[in-house]
């Protein structure tokens, strides 16, 4: 069992029981406190708990939002601890963090810990690990030890009193004792202590014992407390407000020396007065005993003690603990100063939940610190409490004084952040105007200005600003700009390079997973869109960001209505409605728009015309009010597309409005899709002239924008019905100018259905690995991505094998490449842990000690089984070599093989230098095969197909000169001299600006030499 939960009320000996069971083992003990509810704090303390040497823990970095980096650090230390014999990881008092984001962290830990390690969690409340999100938190993977097992029965009570206190009682008395106390260990301990002292016999004590466990403890605790010397009583009362008990803090509150406090702590622990040592010099008082002691302190004295504790921690620079004690001392002003000292650090380290907890009870003391109001505004914004964030920013601005200055600037920036997060450009513009008047250096807010221009739909201006900005945060906005310009493949490539490279505070629409889900849904890549949307949902849950969850849920609905395959309308409808309701609960009108657009399209497919119009108009009005002209154009497209799919004549007006508005913004995708639908309407209405002109333009722009996907895998705004797309292309084939390209696209959509004529497929391998279209592993009916491997080194082992000759490596080679900085013995331990994790992910049902089938190992080598594992790079290499060796490239074969090469080899792992030789080798084959295929297409008169092939190549490497030359030649052969000259000028500009040279070719306007 990877997880053992020890659950019972206070006083049942949970900690004592776990301590006894694990005492003779190599364990790590982590006593949790409420401050550990923040996942970054939890992981930092967990790392310290398992660190085997004082210097190994190091200084934690300052993560932003995502806890993947600190989790990796903790796992590295756990690997070393396990190698040293570590077995039990004890999380004591887990109830104080249960229900926080820490649950998700522990769920992830349970998935990746070595099989020899168990997590033992003690808790006063029932734990529900199945909600933690891990794969190893199901019923069968958890052992629960509850109150029924921890309570003493008659025999255990008899043995305990005899061994611990030397007290022997008759069985009849023991039976009554157990019945009266319900076997409660702490009550039996107190009774045993009293009997041992000889002050009472058992019958007297039982007669005096009040009903109810809390009352019984107070009675017995009072008896034990009264026995202590007065100096010990005073010390216990004073230090009961502390947690943990350290000599320095105890000395401060008890008004004694540190040495004297240390001696008293050791004395109390040795006497068994419910105080146990946890770390060297640090002690933990039993919860019930501490509660009992605190109830005996006068409220005024309690405040004095907390004030002294606050002063002690403040003097040590421990402002977080100082603030907690200051609040308990009813000194909110002092607490506010303490929190103000660390507010910026808490925010930048992603600990906004901790900042919220510390500022929740400050009340009017916040008003003395405008900067703290601003910090709290950011914290509540990151928790999706946007109205409260605005109120706090306004309060900070009002307190900044008539001069304004830095406080006003920060208050306005906090308000601006809310409007950017909620994508309300009209409101954001108003704040930016005030910032312009208040801040002399406008470059300070250039990133926010660029983002708002993108949100407005002022894409040309946004691009101009972005090109001139030297701000790294501004450049992180490039993918969003590319998406809104219709340059989806460029945006996708850029985002996939960013993914995993930066840990940022979640910013919803800018979050990579959510944006990739949007891109893939527009491109009709249903599976990839759904995968990224689910990642966003999980991330929103882990980071307690309901807005990210809302956006990602809506995009999961859009993913399910994209593509030309069967639509799961019920699930799509459910996700879209859930996102809509979530946006309404959050009170953010703007985020209703995306699910409304999806519902507009879905309502038409479900035959609900009234809902189509209702949802569509609602989306348009919402976006118009927000000032987002780009997305408003998309909402008009959604409504127009839904109406056009059933040939409603009113569709044309909506589509033309969308097209004009998107062109004004600077977008290319929406106008293209509008023309695709308008051409479909022309065709349905028998307008041959209009259809022919529009169809040729659509097909040309499809090539120029490299958006063949709108035909092969249409997005949710495209023509998803196969029959409708084929009819459109059949109409275009009747026109000589567009016939070749339309026929090429039609052939790729209309696959042969005569199974008898097709060769028998090769047996499906147990594992199919994709390396040329984003890394993915297909295992049976399950698709695994890099995120499915919770241990990154496990992925690297698999990738290294994919890149190796014959997919085999020696163990020593792997150790040198994966852990070059570590001694060989430590690297070997890490390797065994990572390999075990890899086996577990690839073969989850493999029985213990059963041989592995996929990743094979021997004493000195590791390799992929050639009969069970198939890699797309191998297929591409074999097919490309065969075609190139044939001398004259087969057209259909060449296009089919080229279609498998969507991205360079392992392009989503650019930092792995060992992948570069294979990446370069396959890129050369791709280049040679593309050029050979394009030349054959050109000779066969398939000019548009030749251009499309070269454009695909140039998207990977824009400096391949023969590809530019073939594009121009194809346009000339097709009779489009103007397009040929544009192609040459673009090549000339690119080479001169980027390389400082001119092309070696010139444009020959005579197309005769090229055939066709």
Automatic annotation (TrEMBL):
Pinpoint the Bacterial transcriptional activator domain residues: 871-1002
* InterPro entries, alphabetized: AfsR-DnrI-RedD_regulator, BTAD, P-loop_NTPase, TPR-like_helical_dom_sf, WH-like_DNA-bd_sf, WHD_MalT
Return the SMART domains for the record. Answer: BTAD (SM01043)
**Keyword presence, Ribonucleoprotein:** no
Question: Keywords in UniProt for this one?
Answer: Two-component regulatory system
Which BP terms does GO give this entry? phosphorelay signal transduction system
Pfam families per UniProt: BTAD (PF03704), WHD_MalT (PF25873)
User: Membrane: present as a keyword of the record?
Assistant: no
- Superkingdom of the source species: Bacteria
What name does the UniProt record give this protein?
Answer: Bacterial transcriptional activator domain-containing protein
User: Which organism does this sequence originate in?
Assistant: Streptomyces malaysiensis subsp. samsunensis
């Amino acid at each position: 069992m990877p997880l053992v939960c020890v659950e019972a009320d206070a006083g049942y000996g949970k900690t004592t029981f776990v301590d006894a069971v694990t005492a003779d083992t190599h364990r790590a003990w982590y006593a949790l406190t409420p401050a550990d509810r923040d996942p970054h704090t939890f992981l930092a303390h967990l790392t310290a708990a398992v660190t085997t040497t004082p210097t190994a823990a190091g200084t934690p970095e300052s993560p932003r939002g995502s806890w993947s980096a600190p989790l990796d650090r903790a796992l590295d230390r756990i690997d070393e601890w396990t190698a040293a014999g570590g077995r039990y990881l004890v999380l004591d008092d887990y109830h104080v963090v249960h229900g926080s984001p820490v649950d998700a962290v522990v769920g992830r830990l349970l998935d990746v810990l070595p099989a020899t390690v168990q997590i033992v969690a003690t808790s006063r409340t029932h734990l529900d690990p199945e909600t933690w999100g891990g794969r190893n938190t199901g019923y069968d993977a958890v052992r629960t030890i509850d109150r029924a097992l921890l309570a003493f029965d008659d025999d255990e009570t008899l043995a305990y009193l005899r061994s611990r206190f030397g007290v022997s009682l008759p069985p009849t008395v023991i039976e009554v004792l157990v019945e009266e106390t319900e076997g409660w260990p702490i009550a039996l301990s107190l009774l045993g202590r009293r009997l041992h002292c000889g002050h009472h016999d058992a019958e007297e004590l039982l007669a005096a014992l009040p009903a109810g466990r809390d009352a019984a403890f107070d009675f017995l605790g009072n008896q034990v407390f009264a026995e202590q010397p007065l100096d010990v009583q005073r010390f216990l009362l004073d230090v009961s407000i502390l947690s943990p008990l350290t000599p320095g803090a105890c000395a401060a509150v008890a008004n004694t020396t540190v040495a004297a406090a240390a001696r008293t702590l050791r004395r109390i622990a040795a006497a068994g007065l419910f105080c146990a040592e946890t770390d060297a010099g640090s002690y933990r008082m039993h919860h019930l005993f501490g509660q009992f002691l605190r109830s005996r302190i006068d409220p005024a004295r309690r405040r004095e003690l907390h004030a002294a504790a606050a002063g002690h921690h403040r003097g040590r620079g421990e402002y977080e603990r100082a603030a907690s004690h200051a609040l308990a001392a009813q000194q909110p002003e002092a607490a506010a100063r303490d929190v103000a000292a660390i507010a910026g650090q808490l925010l930048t380290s992603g600990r906004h939940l901790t900042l919220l907890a510390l500022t929740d009870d400050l009340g009017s003391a916040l008003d003395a610190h405008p900067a703290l109001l601003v910090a709290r505004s950011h914290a509540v914004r990151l928790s999706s409490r946007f109205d409260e964030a605005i109120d706090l920013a306004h309060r900070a601005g009002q307190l900044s004084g008539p001069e304004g200055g830095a406080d006003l600037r920060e208050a306005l920036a906090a308000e601006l952040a809310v409007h950017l997060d909620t994508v309300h450009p009209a409101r954001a513009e108003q704040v930016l105007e005030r910032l312009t008047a208040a801040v002399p250096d406008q470059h300070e807010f250039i990133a926010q200005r660029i983002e708002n221009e993108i949100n407005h739909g002022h894409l040309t201006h946004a691009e101009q600003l972005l090109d001139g900005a030297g701000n790294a945060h501004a450049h992180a906005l490039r993918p969003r700009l590319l998406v809104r310009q219709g340059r989806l493949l460029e945006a996708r490539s850029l985002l996939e390079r960013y993914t995993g490279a930066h840990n940022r505070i979640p910013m919803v629409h800018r979050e990579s997973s959510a944006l990739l889900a949007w891109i893939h849904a527009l491109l009709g890549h249903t599976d990839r869109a759904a995968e990224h949307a689910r990642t966003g949902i999980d991330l929103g849950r882990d980071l307690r960001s309901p807005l990210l969850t809302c956006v990602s849920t809506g995009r999961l609905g859009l993913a399910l209505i994209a593509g030309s395959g069967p639509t799961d309308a019920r699930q799509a409808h459910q996700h879209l409605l859930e996102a809509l309701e979530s946006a309404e609960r959050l009170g953010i009108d703007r985020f209703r728009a995306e699910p409304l657009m999806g519902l507009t399209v879905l309502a038409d497919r479900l035959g609900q015309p009234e809902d189509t119009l209702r949802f569509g108009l609602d989306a348009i009005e919402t976006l118009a009010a927000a000032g987002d002209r780009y997305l408003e154009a998309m909402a008009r497209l959604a409504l127009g597309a839904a109406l056009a799919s059933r040939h409603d004549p009113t569709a044309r007006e909506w589509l033309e409005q969308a097209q004009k508005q998107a062109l004004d913004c600077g977008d290319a995708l929406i106008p293209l899709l509008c023309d695709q639908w308008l051409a479909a309407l022309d065709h349905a209405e028998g307008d041959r002239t209009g259809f022919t002109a529009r169809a040729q333009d659509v097909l040309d722009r499809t090539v120029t924008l490299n958006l063949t996907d709108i035909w092969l895998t249409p997005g949710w705004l495209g023509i998803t019905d196969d029959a409708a797309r084929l009819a459109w292309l059949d109409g275009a084939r009747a026109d000589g100018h567009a016939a070749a390209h339309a026929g090429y696209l039609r052939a790729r959509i209309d696959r042969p259905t005569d199974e008898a004529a097709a060769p028998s497929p090769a047996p499906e391998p147990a594992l199919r690995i994709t390396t040329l279209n984003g890394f993915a592993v297909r295992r049976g009916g399950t698709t695994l991505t890099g995120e499915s491997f919770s241990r990154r080194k496990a992925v690297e082992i698999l990738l290294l094998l994919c890149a190796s000759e014959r997919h085999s490596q020696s163990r020593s080679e792997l150790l040198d490449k994966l852990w070059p900085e570590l001694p060989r013995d430590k690297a070997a331990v890490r390797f065994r842990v990572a390999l075990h994790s890899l086996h577990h992910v690839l073969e989850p049902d493999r029985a213990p000690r059963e041989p592995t089938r996929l990743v094979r190992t021997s004493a000195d080598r590791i390799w992929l089984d050639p009969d069970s594992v198939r890699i797309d790079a191998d297929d591409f290499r074999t097919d490309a070599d065969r075609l190139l060796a044939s001398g004259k490239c087969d057209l259909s074969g060449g296009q089919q093989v080229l279609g498998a090469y969507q991205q360079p080899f392992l392009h989503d792992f650019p930092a792995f230098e060992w992948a570069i030789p294979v990446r370069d080798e396959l890129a050369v084959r791709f280049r040679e095969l593309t050029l050979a295929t394009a030349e054959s297409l050109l000779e066969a008169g398939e000019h548009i197909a030749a251009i499309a092939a070269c454009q695909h190549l140039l998207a990977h490497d824009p400096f391949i000169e023969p590809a530019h030359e073939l594009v121009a030649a194809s346009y000339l052969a097709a009779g489009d001299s103007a397009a040929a000259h544009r192609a040459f000028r673009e090549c000339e500009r690119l080479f001169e600006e980027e390389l400082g040279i001119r092309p070696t070719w010139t444009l020959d306007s005579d197309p005769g030499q090229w055939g066709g």
